[in-house]
Design brief:
This protein is mainly beta and 70 residues long. The chain is built from one helix and seven strands. Strands 1-2-3-4-5-6-7 form a seven-stranded antiparallel sheet.
């Protein structure tokens, strides 16, 4: 599983064996994204600590996740 999130607002990658595409924008301190495998917009709170992103969905009120940055 991986995501690529370049500065141009695109998201690409693979998640659970499925191709993932989408878009994002920074809005009011949140990463607001729409992706192909999960319809609808979700604004997420991301905190970068070293090579780790700790995030939470639904403007910081939803489920948490952790990504490793490489």
């Amino acid at each position: 599983q991986f995501l690529t999130v370049p500065a141009d607002g695109r998201i690409t990658g693979s998640w659970s064996g499925q191709a993932l595409t989408g878009t994002y924008e920074m809005r009011d301190g949140y990463v607001c994204r729409e992706i192909s495998i999960r319809p609808g917009e979700d604004c997420q709170l991301w905190l970068l600590q070293g090579d780790t992103v700790i995030g939470s969905r639904d403007r910081g009120n939803g489920a948490q996740f952790t990504y490793t940055v490489s």
